[in-house]
Design goal:
This protein has 443 residues and is α/β, with parallel strands linked by helices. The chain folds into three domains: 208 residues, 3-Layer(bba) Sandwich (FAD/NAD(P)-binding domain); 86 residues; 102 residues, no CATH class. Helices cover 33% and strands 23% of the residues. It has twelve helices and 19 strands. Strands 6-5-14-15-16-13-17 form a seven-stranded mixed sheet, covered by helices on one side. A six-stranded mixed sheet has the order 8-2-1-12-19-18. The protein is globular and about 65 Å long. Bound molecules: flavin-adenine dinucleotide (FAD). The site of flavin-adenine dinucleotide has 33 residues, from helix 1, strand 3, strand 13, strand 17 and helix 6.
Length: 443
Amino acid sequence: MAKKIIVAGGGHGGIACAALLSQAGFDVTVYEKNSRNNMGYDWTDIFDPKALRAARIPMPSKDKYEYKTNMTFIPPSARTPVTQDVPPSEAEIKMERSDIYDLIINHAEKHGVKFVFDCPVKKALMAGDRVIGIDTEKGEFYADMVIDACGCESVVRASLPDICGIQKHTNEFEKFYVYRAFYNRATDEEPEFKYKVYMLPNGRMGIGWVASEGEYSDLLIGEFEPFTVEEAEQKAEFFRKDNPVLGDKVLRGGYMVEIPVRQPLAIMVADGYAAIGDSAFMTVPIIGSGLADAFKAAAMLAEVIINDTSETYCAEVLWDYQMKYFKALGAGMAPLALVKLLLTKITPEQLDYLFDNGILGADELTITADSTSLGSMLSFDPALLGKAKSLVKDKALTRMVISLGKNIAKASTVCASMPKHYSKFTVQNWARRYEKLFRVHHR
Ligand SMILES: Cc1cc2nc3c(=O)[nH]c(=O)nc-3n(C[C@H](O)[C@H](O)[C@H](O)COP(=O)(O)OP(=O)(O)OC[C@H]3O[C@@H](n4cnc5c(N)ncnc54)[C@H](O)[C@@H]3O)c2cc1C
């Protein structure tokens, strides 16, 4: 009889993995809290199309996507904007989120995956420290293994017993509270920069963007502290002053969401359990893109499950998935979480200094589809320290950057020392050392 796999939550990586497993003969069901027509958000997303290929999902038809325009980064003073220069071969695509879901759900259904919509999952069902199923509002369901694709604040992850050693909730500065809305265009005039990303806008700890599109103007505000939709409307005024194109009528979106912007989850597996996508914090810290890595992780997880000849799907076997993920992507992401923490410490004046002196230039800010490590994304590594002549004048900033350099080196060492084989004791010990790297020390 085919082995049964439950995917809890219709996250993107979970659905992509479900399709691969079903193709390989597993009996796979996805349990999702939303209705089919209500999947995803009411806006567009940008991601690396090569990730679809990795998960053997076909490209969408050409009318469903376009290539993304370069972003222009605006420092707090707005004095020295920097525009990215992404090579065409690395360009990401922009798609409606609902079209992404149509693509992956249709693909999964074609390969035999079953979906149960309108089915909120309540918690994991356990036998000792093994996950054996899920408790949902439609009853209990059992399987040989549960893939957790419930997103950033997964109830499945949060319900695992402490003995699994898996972090239940995000800590301070580990997620962005985000408001996003498409507004009407208030002018027909095309702005000089079509896609502006504001760093520490209006003195706030976070980012914002205004993208001018054909029919509308796209506003995103992300901060480390929660805020309300009413407060977001007030914050929008700051962006309107600088962007006459941004109207005041919400056409789409206009609500709050959360994005993890942290290092990947330290332990992603337990007996009968693996987390994927946002539930394993697979987004790129700082920018919060998570679709591409979720699709790539789907291929890695499916391969490990399919190759498990013992058919036990225990942590010892599934650990190989975590190893593969860290080797290919996670170890490059973890240092970026340290760079993100700089955003919580740096003053607007210091950030201006980095822009004004060319320390943060187009090379550093060219965040491309292949941005999986510091080297390819933000050269806050030796290359940045090479530009340190201009840094020396600001002693506090120099200290901050040198300490960042040291912490990045430590993070690389800790990631490289991840245990090759799973045992609760060694893995949980390693996880403590890894998490300690990102602990925020209040002054
Ligand atoms: C405003 C915004 C903009 C973004 N822009 C981009 C972008 O441009 N590019 C990019 O790559 N990424 C972007 N992201 C991040 C991206 O959305 C995620 O990283 C990506 O979706 C992977 O997460 P996921 O699919 O694992 O989880 P999610 O997208 O959170 O999906 C989780 C699924 O599980 C379901 N679920 C949750 N709890 C339960 C439960 N208890 N029972 C049953 N089902 C449940 C949810 O309804 C949802 O369908 C953006 C995120 C936000 C919020």
